[in-house]
Amino acid sequence: MKTLILATAALIAAPVAAQSAATPTQAPATTQADKASPRSGHMMHKKSHMKRPAPMFRGMSEAGRKELMTAMRASQDDRAAVSAARDKIAALVGADKLDSKALQTAMDEERRAVDAQHARQQQRVLAAISKLSTEDRKAFAADTQKARAKMRERMDSWR
């Protein structure tokens, strides 16, 4: 039962981890105007002094944090099927003539893709949690509760 609760907590925290995961991006092309801008150098200078965000699950050991982050980031591989299904839904919704039957089918496909992604994520997180020390599991549970409380607070402020 405790494992199920911790796995559920991990899944709740997974979107936060996924959002904070660094993704390589291509730098935007600079124009001559950008190079000549007096502020462009200023912004570069300012960025070099910005603080890095605190590590996720700061109460855990480095090894435990790495284990969980690896499991959570692995879900990025599953996103292509979900994204394709959502693109199909958007195309059907945006069509000149609505095909409700095709839209329902696309929505059903999207739900299956999301459910499959979620199931794989749960298995990866469960496997990662089972490798953690007792101290790391307790720290993970506490950090997850803090993250959930922070998210609830933000959500309540939007309402």
Could you give a quick summary of the protein structure above?
By secondary structure, the protein is mostly helical. 74% of the residues lie in helices and 0% in strands.
Which helices and strands occur, and which strands form pairs?
Blueprint lengths: L1 H19 L11 H5 L1 H10 L14 H12 L5 H15 L6 H32 L2 H25 L1
What this model shows, in words?
Mean pLDDT is 76; it is low at 1-7, 14-28 and 30-46. α1 packs across α6, α1 crosses α7 and α5 (79-93) runs antiparallel to α6. The two termini are 33 Å apart. The chain is mostly helical and 159 residues long. It has helices spanning 2-20, 32-36, 38-47, 62-73, 79-93, 100-131, 134-158. It is 74% helix and 0% strand. The radius of gyration is 21 Å and the shape is elongated. The chain has 7 helices and no strands.
Structure summary, number of beta strands:
0
Q: Give the oligomer, counting copies of the same chain as homo and different chains as hetero.
A: single chain
Tell the overall outline: elongated
Secondary-structure element string: HHHHHHH
Strand content: under 5%
The residue-averaged pLDDT reads 76
Estimated structural class: mainly alpha
Terminus-to-terminus distance: 33 Å
Q: How much is the radius of gyration in Å? A: 21 Å
Counting DSSP H or I runs of 4 or more residues, the number of helices is: 7
Share of helical residues? over 70%
Q: Which sheet architecture does the biggest sheet show?
A: none
Q: Stretches where pLDDT falls below 50 for ≥5 residues? A: 1-7, 14-28, 30-46
